[in-house]
Amino acid sequence: MTASLRSFLAAVQFLTIIPVRLPGRLSPSRLGKSLHFFPVVGAGIGILLATAAGIFYLAPAAPAAALTVILSVLVHGGLHLDGFADTCDGLAGGRDAAAALAIMRDSRIGAMGAAAISGLLLLKWAVLVSLPVLLVGKALFCMALFSRWAQVLACVGTRYPRAEGRAQAFIAAAGWPQAVAGGAAVILIFAAVLGHAGLAVFGLSVAAVLAVKYYIQRRIGGMTGDTIGAVNEIGEVSVLFFTLVAR
Description:
Elements: H1 3-15, H2 28-33, H3 38-56, H4 61-74, H5 79-93, H6 97-105, H7 111-130, H8 133-155, H9 167-173, H10 176-194, H11 196-220, H12 225-246
């Protein structure tokens, strides 16, 4: 097995519930290098969601959108939603960086985290209900692709604010060349899939992700696994929302 293939499979194993189990323990270096394949895995997830939506939308829009949102959560086992909830709990309840980080480490979801998840999923559902049926699959594909690249963007130019943790490997491996190259590929795909509106959707979604990243870094001094997951969710809902606005 080549090093690139192993890194790709590590990304699949980390980002999805697909039963890929690489032999042995992944080293921090190998785990970090899997970050470069996140957008590729995102594209695969996007194809899956778009295909499933094509079937779901044979039913009325409201239940079809609900099924699509559920599938989008199941495909990653709730990993990013958990990070989003923990981030919201930590930022809302922590008076300083240390307190916020401690709250994020708590496995229990607080009131703010539960409310944030509910609002996020409701917004995704509302947008999917409102989108023209022919645009749903395109939006879902772009959503999954962009959000996984957004995780790369979240890891670049930052630090890990804890002494140790799995996300430290991703941040150590992230570099601007990979992020820029990935972003160039994503924007070209957006333009091909969504036309001229895709450029606006991409730019506005990047602005939303960078604003959230900036705020998080100001609050806790860097990015953690939870906040990277939160950036993924912000990336998803941003692409969906701005696709609706720009259509």
